[in-house]
Structure to design on (238 residues):
């Protein structure tokens, strides 16, 4: 049974923002493939690929490429054209097996509970919008989500807090009225940077201890086990 925090998170919940892959759905995205494709594209541009590895995070790869281009004096418009090519590679790979995506057990039940209790629901993902909307549609959850913030070229992706703050605003809420639920270290860092509580789920690669070390106020095996916790919490508050 997860330990309770001294100040109950649920005492101020008006919105819950969820990560998507491996939090609400079982991801089918081949991340290593799209990182390898991006490294190949970098090589095709005549750039040295030394220091680029598919073991690195995608944000690290792209940030390293941008920094190297700036050091070489490449113009911002020229770099942006290449970055848009990277976006297209990621979009294509994300959509390759999208129809195989399945909801994590209990995900729709949790979103339905939140909808019934008038809690706003957002999804924050580094996936593209076509991927996110299609995944939520085929798993019968799109109608239970009030707003989605996806990867785009205008706002830095999580772990930057900017997309989280923008999503909270789109939900009509202050960040402090929300809580972030996710499975990844990036999610935990994003929550800390945004100044909001983080609830970890162990449906990704992190252990309970790793999630707690990352700052999780609560840790659950999956979103399914969050249903009774939210049900009790929201019944008391509302």
């Amino acid at each position: 049974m997860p330990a309770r925090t001294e100040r109950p998170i649920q005492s101020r919940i008006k919105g819950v923002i969820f990560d998507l892959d491996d939090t609400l759905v079982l991801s089918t995205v081949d991340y290593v493939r799209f990182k390898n494709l991006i490294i190949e594209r970098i090589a095709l541009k005549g750039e040295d690929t030394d220091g680029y590895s598919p073991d690195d995070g995608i944000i690290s790869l792209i940030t390293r490429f941008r920094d190297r281009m700036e050091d070489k004096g490449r113009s911002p418009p020229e770099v942006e054209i290449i970055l848009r090519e990277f976006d297209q590679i990621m979009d294509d790979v994300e959509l390759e097996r999208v129809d195989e995506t399945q909801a994590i057990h209990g995900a729709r039940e949790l979103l339905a509970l939140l909808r019934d209790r008038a809690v706003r629901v957002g999804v924050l993902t580094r996936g593209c919008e076509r991927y996110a909307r299609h995944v939520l549609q085929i798993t019968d959850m799109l109608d239970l989500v009030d707003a989605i913030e996806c990867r785009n070229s205008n706002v830095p992706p999580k772990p930057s807090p900017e997309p989280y703050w923008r999503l909270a605003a789109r939900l009509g809420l202050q960040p402090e009225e929300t809580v972030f639920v996710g499975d990844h270290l990036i999610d935990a860092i994003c929550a800390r940077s945004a100044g909001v509580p983080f609830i970890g789920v162990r449906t990704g690669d992190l252990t309970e201890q790793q999630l707690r070390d990352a700052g999780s106020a609560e840790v659950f095996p999956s979103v399914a086990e969050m249903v009774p916790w939210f049900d009790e919490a929201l019944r008391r508050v509302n």
